[in-house]
Amino acid sequence: MSTSSxxxxxxxxxxxxxxxxxxRTEALKAAIELEVFTAIGEGNTTxxxxxxxxxxxxxxxxxxxxYLTIMGMLTKNGNxxxxxxxxxxxxxxxxxxxxxGIIGFLNTxxxxxxxxxxxxAVRKGxxxxxxxxxxxxxxPIWVKFARAxxxxxxxxxxxxxxxxxxxxxxKLKILDIAAGHGLFGIAFAKNNPQxxxxxxxxxxxxxxAKENAQKAGVAERYHTIEGSAFDVEFGSGYxxxxxxxxxxxxxxxxxxxxxxxxxxxxADGGRAATLEFVPNEDRVTPPDTAQFSMVMLVxxxxxxxxxxxxxxxxxxxxxxxxxxLHPLTPTIQQVVISEK
Amino acid sequence: MSTSSxxxxxxxxxxxxxxxxxxRTEALKAAIELEVFTAIGEGNTTxxxxxxxxxxxxxxxxxxxxYLTIMGMLTKNGNxxxxxxxxxxxxxxxxxxxxxGIIGFLNTxxxxxxxxxxxxAVRKGxxxxxxxxxxxxxxPIWVKFARAxxxxxxxxxxxxxxxxxxxxxxKLKILDIAAGHGLFGIAFAKNNPQxxxxxxxxxxxxxxAKENAQKAGVAERYHTIEGSAFDVEFGSGYxxxxxxxxxxxxxxxxxxxxxxxxxxxxADGGRAATLEFVPNEDRVTPPDTAQFSMVMLVxxxxxxxxxxxxxxxxxxxxxxxxxxLHPLTPTIQQVVISEK
Lengths: 340, 340
Description:
Two copies of one chain form a homodimer. The first copy, chain A, is an alpha/beta fold and about 350 residues long. In chain A, about 45% of the residues lie in helices and about 15% in strands. Chain A has helices at about 15-20, 20-35, 35-40, 45-55, 60-70, 85-90, 105, 110-115, 120-125, 140-165, 185-190, 205-215, 250-265, 285-290, 290-300, 310-315; strands at about 75, 80-85, 170-175, 195-200, 220-225, 240-245, 265-275, 320-325, 335-340. In chain A, the strands form two sheets. In chain A, strands 5-4-3-6-7-9-8 form a seven-stranded mixed β-sheet, sandwiched between helices. Chain A has a two-stranded antiparallel ribbon with strand order 1-2. In chain A, helix 2 packs across helix 5 (about 60-70). The longest helix of chain A is centred in the middle third of the chain and has 24 residues, at about 140-165. At the A-B interface, helix 1, helix 2, helix 5, helix 6 and helix 9 of A face helix 1, helix 2, helix 5, helix 6 and helix 9 of B.
């Protein structure tokens, strides 16, 4: 075989680690459900204290905490466990950056079913769950998504507002397509007091976005348009259209149809800001970005993680004059800014 | 919190990688089922060739191969994929060291159910699948196990025979407890022409062991004892008792009961050789060894990955005079040799 090398002894370790990788996911979910990280953060650092706080058997608590330590999510010193910086920040329910709630979305049977039917999805070249997977109209999964994923999008939404509207000194009429939790539009509204947001999504999802706009104190500048982005009237004269985590669900042709509609809704000199997982042209780097392709294979009929060249072409075909790519470090996503 | 450090920025990356880790398992299973590694090993190195050989959509084949590349199981150069040394050795069906068949065991719904009920297992302190999990009498899972896991045990079985019977120059009457595929006893029989093996396991499982003894050319020196190791008559005068991957299913008290029976079956000067996952006293190192505890939590009522101190105590309580610990590098398991 072309890759064999006399210097390297074959090892089955990566095979075993990968075939058992699902155990790590289950252990993390169990720890979140049982509030193990919160318990330890509160000062319950030994097995008896953790088991008592989390209402588990001591044996179960001990084996789970050891497993979390092996995974690098806790540290262990003698009989005492402690949170890592990352666990304290993202997994203790008392932290403002708590992310554990996203298991409410990731645990959705429909999503899991997609992954469990991966072989069939590879054969078909698209989701094996049903004909439309997660992109089915009014799929209630997106209400769960809007509620569960908001904390995860807090940082990227603030970063994208600063990137696209750094001076925040002009009136901005903004269309937020498939707004979901609404955080992206809301971040622009908080960043710029002259920004007016028009959010498009399914009716039930927009209720979540409106709640979040209320909490953020921008409800007066938050307007909604109910329905599919492919069907509704956007209106016109927008300075900015936000297309966040949306294009990856569809094939290039559907995206071009949408982008032509976006182009028509923009004022002269207007821009579209697209948040996506944009892998390099090799499609295997950066790894955490590139692997999002698989999420689309198992969950949608024809979605993908598009390269910048592919996105650039869709925008050009829809009439945009120029697109530029911007990293959103430290997130694993990128922003494409496209000018009318 | 005690672990916080001003120097380290919190990152959610480990959280995301862990919550998505199950996708890696599904991708590896899909690739094995579709024979992607074999296809590439045969010279189908581009997406169209792989898709044609594996009967998949090109889109599905491309996304899967990119994902396998990201996981480190393939390499990609331009549009061509190649096997790594490890994949060529362990995942190409044409390789004598092919391990892919073990998904036949690991995919067992009963095993997967254990992992999917981890939260409940932690609460209970034992498997949530049913009262006995995988240790139920005559559980057909062990026939699957015997067929699927044999290739994985080829190397450890040869290593343990060389470790325990290095000179192979004397008659040895060997009892192989819970023989499964039979490979451990068979390795001793192949290593030493004067070794006679007496294998204990459920009747249906012993059929697999006998087939393997036949293939190995040691059927004449291969004898069987049908039933549970806790119930059957072992006979007596054994020079060696093999207890491979067995004690981890049970609690210390049950193990001591069994070990007393083993002690009684041994001739004077006889030894027990125990193959186990033996973590260090901290129970979190070595990581691949220590995490086996979780497999026992979700799959058995009271099994565990025991430390050497715990195993030593069980053997001492059962009457053994001395136990010693031996690594079985490069495997993630260890051998304990205990003298009568």
